Amino acid sequence: MCIRTKSIYEFMSSKKSLFASIGSDLPSGLVVFLVALPLCLGISLASGAPFFSGIISGIIGGVVIASFSNSPLSVSGPAAGLAALVLGAITTIGDFSLFLSAVLLAGILQILLGVAKLGGIANYIPGSVIKGMLTSIGILIIAKQIPHAFGYDKDSKGNITELMPFGQEDLHELLQPLQHIDIGVFLLCLLSIIIMIAWEKPFIKRRVKFIPGALVAVIVAVLVNEIWIKTGSRFAVQNEHLVQIKVASDANEFFSFFTLPDFSGLLNSTVIVYGVVIAIIASLETLLSIEAVDNLDPQRRVTSTNRELIAQGIGNSVAGLIGGLPVTSVIVRSSANVNSGAKSKLSSIIHGLLLLISIILIPSLLNKIPLSALAAILLLTGYKLAKPSIFKNFWNAGKYQFFPFIVTVVIIIGVDLFAVIPSLSGKGLLVGVMSGIVAATASILYGNLKNSYFFHSENHHEGDIINIRLSEEVSF
Length: 476
Description:
Layout: H1 2-20, H2 22-47, H3 51-68, E1 76-78, H4 83-93, H5 96-115, H6 127-150, H7 171-175, H8 183-199, H9 202-205, H10 213-231, H11 251-256, H12 269-296, H13 305-322, E2 327-329, H14 331-339, H15 346-361, H16 363-366, H17 371-386, H18 388-396, H19 399-416, H20 428-450, E3 453-454, E4 469-470
Antiparallel strand pairs: 1-2, 3-4
């Protein structure tokens, strides 16, 4: 009886402390919602998945994962870092309901990793390899969004080869795709990029720091296109280049939009492989994000990585069961959460609830968003992950850092973008990371082999002390 009373008291105390910061968390949740909404739609576009799936994952990341996580400031949702992997998985598996089985399996594996207390696995992956993986993801995102930016996206998944048909030497054939570029689509993409770049400038950012540039770009793109439509302009962007979310007429129809997994996929070897790959990559991205968010936390609170893996596993299991994309802790949304003054995970829960309200109340408004505006968001996201300064920094860091970094990048890009090994297409992230680890190990061993010890040869008398200086790690 005493134990029961104590547990109830602790439960009520936790609820009381959670809502004690609502004055800070409510506006923060609104800011994160404004950041997350265009990102959820954009990542769905980059993943070749239904737009509804991206919103579902945003809701799960905000409500489900935040409820089980003990991270006060981390915000989870669909991640740009998984977009290329998800696109390859959906394309290879060929059926979205089968793909959901891979997401479910990934969630179960994450729960097992957390229970086994393997939350520190990210510490064993060399930083150069992780950075190479993120850089490759940035390049893949850029490549996949170029067709959407120009409006030449007959393939709904987006493919850079639609604009650059490799292997054709006829100049007319090479330039033929340029004749199909939609000028209105391209202008809206260019306008969105200009707005987001300008929004990052200090003289603007200081004055409107709580309004995300991506949201402003999307709103302006919608307004401009509506003006074009009303005036009959030839630049008006048509429905095939706009977001297309299903609009429900009643509650029953709304719930019919959720997709159930095909459980036969749990016995499919391809689905199982992708489930394992998603679990590994999603866990690494989450653990890196959690570490970064803890460093941003003004109160310096420390998140349990094992509990976070369990929370992420629960979230991905739910996503797989109702038709969502894989979910991770995301640094973009989390940093927006911190910068807007959030105090607890109530902010993340509020942002998830707002996403749910938006998909119920304003789907028709969301369907006015041009795909090229979302492509612009992803192009800048990709650039930030793969900007030239990253290559320069690793080059300056020396060959032992640059070699595993560039090996990871080249292999991931070669496998996933150029399909140099067709049988591995869509598995570039796993192959690239494993290759990078091998390259990093070889670099460490080679470096230590050259500098394992220092022994200065002298003539010594019997009984003299001889000093041999060893390097930090000695391989033999």
